[in-house]
Design brief:
- The chain is of the alpha/beta class.
- The protein has a single domain (about 15-205), classed as Nitrile Hydratase, Chain A, CATH 3.90.330.10.
- It is about 45% helix and about 15% strand.
- The protein has ten helices and five strands; from the N terminus they run βααααββααααββαα.
- It has helices spanning about 15-30, 35-65, 65-75, 75-80, 115-120, 125, 130-135, 140-145, 180-185, 190-195; strands at about 1-5, 90-95, 100-105, 155-160, 165-170.
- Strands 1-4-3 form a three-stranded parallel beta sheet, with helices on one face. A two-stranded parallel ribbon has the order 2-5.
- Helix 2 packs across helix 3 (about 65-75) and helix 7 crosses helix 8 (about 140-145).
- The longest helix is centred in the N-terminal third of the chain and has 29 residues, at about 35-65.
- It is globular, with a radius of gyration of 18 Å.
- The two termini are about 30 Å apart.
């Protein structure tokens, strides 16, 4: 199931982003910072600091049925309850994975991404191959990330826009009934909230 939206055009880069790139180039040119150091910081925000917000949202939904209901009904408002919001002005819709349905998020025209809860988008999410193939052959793309789904499971592909961002609520792993919210948070990865992976099993934390 692919959700397409008309009138989706990438917004021009804000002046602040242009200035940051200019300063970054100057610092590298002067030898004050290295590209490796910058890449390391970016990876941290992509994989750890940013997605931690989303992981807290997921863990809350796993342990609080009333919150989960609010989250699925109005993701933007429920996420704001936990203090996570940004100036994007975009609505966030939360998609629940179930035993027979798996959701996958993509932005086919650029790289719209729910950064207030997932941090910076990874490089692969912004790449042209992912943006096209996630729609055309989602099962194969997911498999290349290491997630092989049974043919009986329906894969639904959701196309984000400048006004509407999607995030996946992964299935809660088995054997986590007695785990605290904090412990559950450690099981939730950025990739699981995009839909190219499942939440980690307890033994793999």
């Amino acid at each position: 199931m692919s959700q397409a939206h008309n009138g989706h055009h990438p917004a021009p880069e804000p002046d602040a982003a242009i200035r940051v790139k200019a300063i970054e180039s100057l610092l590298i040119e002067k030898g004050i910072v290295s590209t490796d150091a910058i890449d390391a910081v970016v990876r941290t925000y992509e994989q750890d600091i940013g997605p931690l917000n989303g992981a807290k949202v997921v863990a809350k939904a796993w342990t609080d049925p009333a919150y989960k209901e609010r989250l699925l009904a109005n993701g933007t408002e429920a996420i704001a309850e936990l203090g996570f919001w940004g100036s994007q002005g975009a609505e966030i819709v939360v998609l629940e994975n179930k035993p027979d349905v798996h959701n996958l998020v993509v932005c086919t025209l650029c790289s719209c991404y729910p950064w207030p809860i997932l941090g910076l988008p990874p490089t692969w999410y912004k790449s042209a191959p992912y943006r096209s193939r996630a729609v055309l052959e989602p099962r194969k793309v997911i498999s290349e990330f290491g997630l092989d789904l049974d043919e009986s499971i329906e894969i639904r592909v959701w196309d984000s826009t400048a006004e509407l961002r999607y995030v996946v609520l992964p299935e809660r792993p088995e054997g986590t009934e007695n785990m605290s919210e904090e412990e559950l948070t450690a099981l939730v990865t950025r990739d699981a909230m995009v839909g190219v992976a499942k939440a980690k099993a307890p033994a793999s934390v």
